[in-house]
Amino acid sequence: MGVVRVETVVVGPLSTNAYVICNNDSCVVVDPGDEVWKIMRVLRGRKVLAVIATHLHFDHVGAVRDIVELTGTPFMVHRLDWELRDAYAELAMSWGFKAPILPEPTFVNEGFTAPLDLRVIHTPGHSPGSVSIIGDGFVLTGDTLFSGSVGRTDLPGGDDEALIESVCRLYRELPGSFIVYPGHGPSTTVGEEAGNNPIIPQSLCY
């Protein structure tokens, strides 16, 4: 087995971080929000084993169908977000964006192991079905935790208390050295956010 590498591809009008995670010629694509050509260019013909959405907001899934059709790979998302897909489609259109047409998914939940030994944990708050994806020395947090910020909770299914608990869980369960790859903006570390995040620092956790 080779080393798992994470490549960031910034896509779409909301500058969403899509991630291409590869071990040699086998890859997983996370949050392909738009601009499928950018993501396919990074893949360079390597085999895609899964497409995973950390949550179902339109800016994270806009290119899912294209990648699934091009590669024949399964699409994975948490059931609680899939149940809100109509509300999320309305949200996209209310903001002036097209609602993505999505393929039928495979559902992931707490403890699910995705290809490349990526572990899924349920981190609700930004949305009911938000998940974080843990690899060797890194975590993809979607819109749960950012560098210096956290996800908003004023969209359908958002929950302040759940978000606090999810962020605190990341601080509690992951080493401080773990790289955090968020849904938007620069990467950071668990330790940096636990100590210095101005919205949910570790001192707020109970």
**CATH H-level superfamily title:** Ribonuclease Z/Hydroxyacylglutathione hydrolase-like
The CATH topology name reads Metallo-beta-lactamase, Chain A
Note the total helix count. 7
Described by the principal axes of the CA atoms, the overall outline is globular
* DSSP strand content: 25-35%
Helix content estimate: 25-40%
- Count every beta strand, where a strand is a DSSP E run of 2 or more residues: 14
Q: How many separate domains?
A: 1
Q: Give start-end ranges of low-pLDDT stretches.
A: none
Structural classification: alpha/beta
Ends apart, CA distance between termini: 39 Å
The CATH class name reads Alpha Beta
Please identify, by name, the CATH architecture: 4-Layer Sandwich
Description of the structure:
The chain has 206 residues and is of the alpha/beta class. The protein has one domain: 4-Layer Sandwich (Metallo-beta-lactamase, Chain A), CATH 3.60.15.10. Helix content is 27%, strand content 30%. It is built from 7 helices and 14 strands. The protein has a 6-stranded mixed beta sheet with strand order 1-2-3-4-5-6. Strands 7-8-9-10-13-14 form a 6-stranded mixed beta sheet. Strands 11-12 form a two-stranded antiparallel ribbon. The radius of gyration is 16 Å and the shape is globular. The mean pLDDT is 97.
